[in-house]
Amino acid sequence: MFDVEKIRADFPILSREVNGKPLVYLDNGASAQKPQVVIDAITKAYAEEYSNVHRGLHYLSNLATENYENVRGKIARFLNVPDEDEIVFTSGTTEGINLVAYGWAMENLQAGDEIILSVMEHHANIVPWHFLRERQGVVLKWVDVDSTGALDPQAVLDAIGSNTKLIAITQLSNVLGTVVDVKSICAGAREKGVPVLVDGSQAAVHMPVDVPDIGCDFYAITGHKLYGPSGSGAIFIKKERMAEMRPFLGGGDMIREVHKDEVTWNDPPMKFEAGTPGIVQTIGLGVALDYMMGIGMENIAAHEKELCAYARTKLDGLNWLNVQGTAPNKAAIFSFTIDGAAHAHDISTILDKKGVAVRAGQHCTGPLMDHLGLTGTCRASFAMYNTKAEVDVLIDALELAHELFS
User: What positions does the domain Aminotransferase class V occupy (predicted)?
Assistant: First the structure.
């Protein structure tokens, strides 16, 4: 049984006050809070078990290596990936996508080749491809969302041409909350021989993810949105794609031998993990995934679905509030503006006075803001520890903001 109050008790920060009000943390799309078990694991790793990993032969190094490498299997289970050697540790989704851009796309794409993107991609899934546009003449093709913020999978597939070499797509919009049917996109792209990279930063925290069922070639996640530490993350890469890649960074455990006139690489996934890694961050991510899987991703998704429906009803009752993204298949992420001259930053400041933490700005989605004709929005993004009572606090705070700016 999903007990939200019991879950809330696991997150110490949720018991604090901000500006004399109980904290209502609705900035989870930017970064989620951490349960005590993750905090304790990080403290223990530094206080009792810290050492560098892999090449040490002493007790602490062996212990740290075991704790660190065990996380690879946890990530594989979380994504339902049978072979943990297809999991590459990263500092987050941004590094994962850059690994694909530098290690795979730069090797396999040339001038005139095309990459298909949706207009609602995060900058982390845009900027690396612009590098290829600027440096190699790769062409970026954009697919728009409809008036509700939904993305038609067929529109993505229809954009495929003879020069299309990659589709890079989010599974869940960090602004609109739109859930994208990436499985259909992958199935259609596979028929045409086009690889697909899925940005799973937002989706993986809100719903069960089955990478083999999705059928993508690359799937990136980031730890800090998964109730884990910042500086942690991973990317799934199909072994066939790994064989087509060159290393992105050089040094440390990604080599087998180094000589004056020759270097030989380690086997994947180590081939793509250079330098001293984020040891403790990764261990913390493993604990966070254990915590989520212990609750059950289906249970988390069901709670958030109910929360999303409640919030939609309440927000729809504010006829002066403009919510961006009303697609039927939507996660509990709401971006909005208020009629009149109120800037998103001003709205956010008023909400903060009531203890409500939201994000304001473009949310690293410049092309989407251009598409919507906006300079920015406020965003309330919910997590498994949020409640309907907190939705009510948000509504009261928004009504105050409306009164002040009317």
Answer: 24-394
